[in-house]
Fold this protein.
Amino acid sequence: MVFRTIGRHPQIVVAIFILGVVGLFIVGSKHYLEQTRQALAFETAKAFEISITTLHHFYSKEIVPRAKAGGIELTDDLSSSIDKIPFPATMTINYGEELENVSAGMTTSMYSTYPFPGRASRKLDPFQLAALNFLKEHPEDHFYRFAKIANRDVIRYSKGIFMNTDCIECHNSAGIGRKWAVGDFRGVREVIIDLPRADELEQEMTKFAIILAVLATIFGSIVMLPTVRILQSTSKTNRILADELSAKNAVLENADLAKNRLMKGVGHDLKTPLNAIIGFSDTMNNEIFGKLGNEKYKDYSQSIHSSGLHLLRMIDQLLNTGAIQDTGWSYEEEALAINPMLASIEPVLRAATEMAGIKFELEYLPTELTLIGDGRALRQILTNLVDNAVKYSKASLITVHCKQEEGKLILSVEDNGIGIFEQELSRLREEHYRGDASPQHHAMGMGIGLWLVDTFAKMHGGELTIDSTVGKGSCFSVIFPPDRLV
């Protein structure tokens, strides 16, 4: 009887199938929405913790010594003193309390097994006790949980705090009865971030699913081939929904910018939304939460990811450029073992070339050699030179050479690409010059990569040399003087 009815009315099968798909869509979308909220909250908490740590270190290194030199004392009770400044830990804790008071959706705190005397009576909750025990045993890791606080969905994210040279004097004179050494486990820094709101998005998705079900049932019952109309309706609704989501995202981004004004001096906050985009596109590209369905979506996520990485490099270069031009690069000299440094950056360089379909080779020094210089600058030199070769050379092979000649260390990036016109060679070191005569002048970039390489080379007393032959390739070399080598 049932099969005979279905045979006479195949529209029923179509309608049941469409309703089933819509039901699965509602269930699946809610699960995906929750996973997305948690992933976004995790990346935001991670970036916020880095920002707070950076502010803490800056305060300890730059503000506290100046205050002491001016005869200003430090205190762990700011409310009772008008002529003192807080200890770094007290400053961070007070800042977190202020964020909580203004309902910023985020806060921070610090706690320890060895608290300052004024905070000795503080009771730690189970999460804080678990964080202390875990991070003491796993210093490089992080500890987090998703929780509900005052009817708010939040993530509690924490990292271990370890003593450095800037902190020893303050802590050893704070009167807690313990002498600290560099590297000791001091305690935990925790941040609490509200998860993005999901109710409005859920309402829109549910409304869309109901409309889709009604339309699909009507057309499926009357016509056996409703696919075109359904797809057209879905496409239009998706565009409307995308516009609405884009507007809401713009509001959220503006809110984030307002919060970030409190951390104006911390440049890392500029990268927070971009890292989220890169993380989400990487999650979609690897289909961590399930198949995307249409191959074009995977292509789009790959494009978003690569564009995000490119923008991140541009932001890094902008920050480096501003530091060099305006306030001076924070030069940090250290003894750098060359081969380990090359090994640490090789995966980044190889990923950039292989993504462009270019073969990559790296030649290490035959014997170990140590260079006295700024590690960040050396890595930036190699990254910029390889990025330029990928963007401009049209090469099939990019090789990084490392050798010692006449007591000098030479780092070179060589390609077998199209070469550079002779009239452009003298201008390549200019800031923002991208080679108007080059066939590749339309490639993405700001034209500051070689300018930075040249600047970093001069900072080390070295020089940048360029050898190129049109049609055969180019070789960019940074030469470090013998007095830089151990």
User: Anything to note?
Assistant: The chain is about 55% helix and 15% strand.
